[in-house]
Predict the structure.
Amino acid sequence: MMKKQSYKVDILSVAKAAGVSAATVSRVMNHPDLVNPTTLKRVEKAIRKTGYVRNRAAQMIHGRRSATLGLVVPTVNYSIFAELVQSFNDTVVDLGFTLVLATHGYDLTAEYKVLRKLLEHRVDGIALVGLDHSDDTYRLLASQDVPVVAAWSYAKSSRISCIGSDNREAGRVAADHLLALGHRRIGLVFPPTHENDRARGRLEAVELALRDAGIEIPDAWRVRSPYSVAHAKSVCHELLSEQKGITGLICGNDIIAQGALSSAMQLGLRIPQDLSIVGIGDFAGSADMYPALSTVQIPAQQIGMEAGRYLVESIANPDPVEIVRRKMEVVLKPRATTGHADGG
Amino acid sequence: MMKKQSYKVDILSVAKAAGVSAATVSRVMNHPDLVNPTTLKRVEKAIRKTGYVRNRAAQMIHGRRSATLGLVVPTVNYSIFAELVQSFNDTVVDLGFTLVLATHGYDLTAEYKVLRKLLEHRVDGIALVGLDHSDDTYRLLASQDVPVVAAWSYAKSSRISCIGSDNREAGRVAADHLLALGHRRIGLVFPPTHENDRARGRLEAVELALRDAGIEIPDAWRVRSPYSVAHAKSVCHELLSEQKGITGLICGNDIIAQGALSSAMQLGLRIPQDLSIVGIGDFAGSADMYPALSTVQIPAQQIGMEAGRYLVESIANPDPVEIVRRKMEVVLKPRATTGHADGG
DNA sequence: AACAGTATTGCAAACGTTTTCATAAAATTA
DNA sequence: TAATTTTATGAAAACGTTTGCAATACTGTT
């Protein structure tokens, strides 16, 4: 059976094999109800025998959709966007789409380039992370009429549709949590905020909350770390061994928090008696670490799902392009890495 | 500038805007050296002004490559395949390709379906994980002449090209590590091995190594857990609280090990004095956990890179389809979660 | 038996590009 | 200046599908 077909099997070979026209084969694949059951059987057999796989490109050129969706994330390292990617994927696959994935490594110039590629491939819709994008990117998006959604971030005046959380709120919740536990000597470990609205919003809100609480933080207690466990660990090691007196750490996300936690434990600090650590994100695994990480949950799965659905919906109804903004609530997950400032 | 072009901008609109033929525009995009510098400038301006993005589908239909590569992984959850995906992506993007990602959730029937979709989209090459695939999948792969590589696993008699590690070796190394430390009361936490050659190879090798060492393991010490931290944690909690006397745990991968570690610490066990835990994989973050996870490294990044390169190479030189098998060495990473059996 | 209605199929145009071939214009040579 | 070569461009065919329209073959009704 199924001989090793050398070279292209097109719709015509199938038609010939089945003794029908190309049109009929096409109908078998797209509108089987329109073809005689007997013929259907024969054609299906021919399809199987020849190993025919229909060419999406050719049907796409006919005005058909490509049935692909582009997803642009900064990175796929660690589990930062893992749940987002997985749930977005699952959602859209269920709806008949295929995922084209692109990453840019937190570089918005690179983002523009990959976005262009996605557009060349005529993805039917695009999801990207966050709301910081280059002008070129925004212009490109505006010039094409492809549905777009920014996932992860929410802003009430975003230039494009967005489905995500308010990062300032996430930052505030994290800060309030530590403040409520009586912490006043707080260290901040965040990634560079340039070109990253998530980190910027979180950090700004944290700083604001602390200021409002009348707390002054020495510059030495503010440190930068990219989203890498190893890097965060080394940066925190330095911070915690040199700057005594810090009782709480607010981290830009759970990956950084993980590094912070690791370095603290290595230094023999008791968590949370000697040091409280709070992350942001609630990534897969954060709840099951030991000690379980206190963090601010961003509902990644739900965001991925909603973003996928929104895109598919917009493709189906190319309505007047109205901007949709959906805010996904952030929720504090107080777990084992935070406790009262007095260690009690 | 760049007006919000309603509806399709095709090569003809650009041609008209620039006062040239479609052929010239095409040449500007594909062979700029063939066109007069003055014309080039004019056309490029028209391209910018109209916001033209070339249609890959249309050029693909012309026998051109699609410039996409399919990557099929079981899941993108946690960081199990994160490094693989990221490095594969980075490698092929550098070489001008775009990544089409598919997941199947460890279900080989689902794998067949997503694979078909990838083929419909005419990806120029396909990478998938492991060597367990359905007959349908293998047949489909054989019937199309698209370069294929199985990443992650290595087997000297694989039906398709493979670039990866020998999972039996990984299992043996993990077992030998614990044996060398004097452990004889060893628990096994593995995922279902059905349709998963990685898990199966590892587990078989572990069992063999233990048998060779004259060790008999009670059935109660063999437990199943999918690749999920939460699930592994709960399964291990049960195992460790009911079955006393276990001094070492061999886990199917680092994610399971992470859950095991978490449950052990929660139970107040000292690691590694009371219990040694070894994982397999050395995923991103494993080295920086606390305590740092002892594990068997599978060089994911390198595998991703080599797989990407191999595919691109095969696309460039559609040589006689010779099967390539590259074995990536596994290396023991003894860290803080394993120690002598006597706890000394 | 003639008719209308319906079900099934094929023909051919169309989609947006690339590329071969031909032609025109410009540059070079004798 | 005429002949030749080179450079730049356009016209049209081709790629693998889908689909509107037309044609044919059935079905059932009188």
Notes: Confidence is low (pLDDT under 50) at residues 1-6 of chain B. Residues 20-24, 27, 34-36, 39, 58, 60-63 of chain B lie near DNA strand D (CB under 10 Å from a C1'). The two ends of chain B are 74 Å apart (CA to CA). The first helix of chain B runs from residue 11 to 18.
